[in-house]
Amino acid sequence: WDNADFSRGTGTTFYQEFLTLNSEKPPLVRDVEAKVRRYLRSSYSAVWTLKITWEKAPAYRARGDSRRTSTYQAVLTTDGFRSYILILYQDGGMQWDYSQLPATNVLIGYT
Predict the structure, then answer these.
(1) Sign, CA torsion 38/41/46/48
(2) Residue ranges of the NIDO domain (predicted)?
């Protein structure tokens, strides 16, 4: 993760909210539930899901080079008690040139 730079008119952000209380669940929500169940080996039934897509996003401080962009998604979901996030990258992963970023002492991972 890093900051995207949309200031030069390159890239777009989309989002879609899925409320699933008392309604039939769309395919995306059913897929998210299946992934949570499979990876965490627990029962899970989403009541709310948000999909955010950053398309062709250049890294912060693109410095005029907006050719190296990345497309990625974050899917946030909750059953009202537990919350999860799935991070999805376009094939090929992140395309940003990390050597051009102003900070190089970055910690990557999770706790």
Answers:
(1) negative
(2) 1-111
